[in-house]
Amino acid sequence: MGGTFDPIHHGHLVAASEVQVRFDLDEVVFVPTGQPYQKGVVSSAEDRYLMTVIATASNPRFHVSRADIDRAGPTYTVDTLRDLRKVYGPEAKLFFITGADALARILSWKDALEMLSLAHFVGVTRPGFELSDDHLPADSVTLVGVPAMAISSSDCRSRVSAGRPVWYLVPDGVVQYIAKRGLYRTD
Ligand SMILES: Nc1ncnc2c1ncn2[C@@H]1O[C@H](COP(=O)(O)OP(=O)(O)OP(=O)(O)O)[C@@H](O)[C@H]1O
Ligand SMILES: O=C(O)c1ccc[n+]([C@@H]2O[C@H](COP(=O)([O-])O)[C@@H](O)[C@H]2O)c1
């Protein structure tokens, strides 16, 4: 599952858990972006990486990859999938989890058609977005319903900035990491 994870929240974690069980995946690899060229300013890669490690540490099937953070330049999923293929070998079956909002824009991603051939894509429901694969090649994507979590990283950032709580929207350790590092504060 790729994401900017600024910060990682329970919407990401519930989606990953549902897909892991549905496809009986050996592991879910969370891949924080290095330079998410379609987003605005984001927190440092190391802060986003560490929040992702903290959030996933208690699940033995969840892992975090530095592939996108350690590769220079803008983050393209076609490169992520090539790097993960090298790590996991030719026999591994790769899935890439995306929310409905990301899936809707996926044809704008670099080398989209080649990218879609490098893994099986899993599109998950997300409140406020329509989940559809009408625009995508047949059999490249499976759509999966996950429990509705109306949580976004941008809302979490706004809440912290306004002094409002993010308890229970993000894991407790991530709440504490945000406070310790003073992330998202404007004062
Ligand atoms: N609440 C959610 N339910 C399902 N999928 C989600 C949810 N939030 C994010 N995703 C998916 O997780 C992936 C990574 O998302 P990302 O890290 O950009 O978080 P975000 O909440 O969308 O961030 P922002 O609000 O900053 O745009 C994307 O594929 C996105 O669609
Ligand atoms: O490959 C691309 O061109 C591309 C463009 C936008 C987003 N992505 C990937 O989609 C995932 C979610 O991205 P984001 O920006 O919504 O956090 C993450 O893994 C990004 O690298 C990939």
Secondary-structure map with pairings?
Blueprint: E1 2-3, H1 10-22, E2 28-32, H2 45-56, E3 62-64, H3 67-70, H4 77-88, E4 95-99, H5 100-104, H6 112-117, E5 120-124, E6 141-144, H7 153-161, H8 172-181
Parallel strand pairs: 1-2, 2-3, 4-5, 5-6
Helix pairs in contact: 2-8
Bound molecules: adenosine-5'-triphosphate (ATP) and nicotinate mononucleotide (NCN).
Describe the structure.
This protein is an alpha/beta fold and 187 residues long. Helix content is 38%, strand content 13%. The protein has 8 helices and 6 strands. The strands form 2 sheets. A 3-stranded parallel sheet has the order 1-2-3. The chain has a 3-stranded parallel sheet with strand order 4-5-6. Helix 1 (10-22) links the parallel strand 1 (2-3) and strand 2 (28-32). Helix 2 (45-56) packs antiparallel against helix 8 (172-181). The termini are far apart. The mean pLDDT is 97. The site of nicotinate mononucleotide has 15 residues, from strand 1 and helix 4.
Can you tell me the residue ranges where pLDDT is under 50 for at least 5 consecutive residues?
A: none
Strand order across the largest sheet: 1-2-3
Q: Radius of gyration in whole Å, from Cα?
A: 16 Å
Helix content: 25-40%
Biggest β-sheet description: 3 strands, parallel
Element order: H for helix, E for strand: EHEHEHHEHHEEHH
What structural category do the secondary elements indicate?
Answer: alpha/beta
In percent, how much strand structure appears in the residues? 5-15%
Number of separate strands: 6
Task: Give the end-to-end Cα distance, rounded to a whole number of Å.
Answer: 33 Å
What is bound: which ligands?
Answer: adenosine-5'-triphosphate, nicotinate mononucleotide
Q: Rough shape?
A: globular
Enumerate how many helices there are, as a single number: 8
Query: What integer is the average pLDDT?
Result: 97
Pfam families: CTP_transf_like (PF01467)
Protein name: Probable nicotinate-nucleotide adenylyltransferase
Pathway: Cofactor biosynthesis; NAD(+) biosynthesis; deamido-NAD(+) from nicotinate D-ribonucleotide: step 1/1
Keywords: ATP-binding, NAD, Nucleotide-binding, Nucleotidyltransferase, Pyridine nucleotide biosynthesis, Transferase
